[in-house]
């Protein structure tokens, strides 16, 4: 499985590389996207702001030949930590039979 992290972030990539032996030349891909420091200044979201909005999110998408097979998404109240990355990858691993070479 190939690994793609966008936007690139070394800490996310290093954590995932410690969890699985990714390969550059593979037809399956784990695409990781995230956003941190989310703010919303719209007055239309006053209700959401009062209840507490997510500060970041993490998305993991497993694709085979560019076809989405599995998706994991989580809103987070704080910045993305190693435990969040590990939880997402474990959810993927527990759902799909991943083979390490």
Tell me briefly what this model is.
The protein has 101 residues and is an alpha+beta fold. The protein has one domain. The protein has helices spanning 10-19, 46-51, 82-95; strands at 2-6, 28-35, 56-64, 67-76.
Low-confidence stretches: none
Arithmetic mean pLDDT: 86
> What is the count of helical runs?
3
Q: Sketch the topology as an H/E string, one letter per element.
A: EHEHEEH
Radius of gyration: 15 Å
Number of E-state strands: 4
Q: How many domain units?
A: 1
Sheet with the most strands, sense and barrel status: 4 strands, mixed
Distance between the termini: 10 Å
Shape: globular
Classify the secondary structure makeup into a structural class.
alpha+beta
> Largest sheet, order of strands side by side?
1-2-3-4
Q: How large a portion of the residues is in β-strands, by DSSP E?
A: 25-35%
Helix content: 25-40%
